[in-house]
Specification:
Elements lengths: L2 H4 L6 H9 L11 H4 L6 E5 L3 H13 L3 E5 L2 H11 L5 E5 L7 H11 L5 E5 L6 H7 L4 E4 L4 H12 L1
Length: 160
């Protein structure tokens, strides 16, 4: 895939994941990308149990200039964070995962580093457990599927 085009897939991340999962192809172009994009220079730990979302998220973050480490479950996220915490600027954490959900991962990350910056991500609205985690010190919340400009804005707020 053309690297200049992959950064525009996020508004279609669900469709893209489904199509890619069936060995299909999708090609999207945008003429307004520079108006809504700022380049990042931080390192992010992306945690999502859905493989296609993790792949699309990694491509998107890297297209924005972020170095990205990926964990597909809570246990791996904690292990990666423990080993690389000095080089991870923030964690993009899915709320709902099997075995170890977002809340448990968040609490363990806070034990490792009380100053960890965590951006919660969920297909559900900001209520219940997500709101509880925000009250406990999460840096932000973004609802899936998120748009490129929304992700760029939230990351600029967290890292700025």
């Amino acid at each position: 895939m053309n690297p200049q085009r992959r950064e525009f897939l996020n508004p279609f991340s669900s469709a893209y994941g489904i199509i890619k999962g069936h060995n299909g192809y999708i090609d999207v172009e945008s003429k307004k990308a520079n108006d809504m994009m700022t380049k990042g220079e931080a390192t992010v730990l992306l945690v999502d149990d859905e493989k296609h979302i993790a792949e699309v998220g990694q491509e998107l973050l890297e297209a924005l200039g972020y170095k990205t480490r990926v964990a597909t479950n809570g246990q791996d996220a904690i292990k990666i964070f423990q080993e690389h915490k000095d080089n991870i600027d923030f964690v993009l954490l899915d709320m709902l995962m099997p075995k170890m959900g977002g809340k448990e991962v968040f609490l363990k990350l806070k034990e490792i580093d009380p100053d960890v910056k965590v951006l919660l991500s969920s297909g559900y609205s900001l209520d219940g457990e997500a709101q509880e985690l925000m009250d406990m010190g999460c840096a932000g919340f973004i609802q899936k599927p998120f748009r490129l400009k929304d992700l760029t804005r939230v990351l600029a707020q967290i890292l700025g």
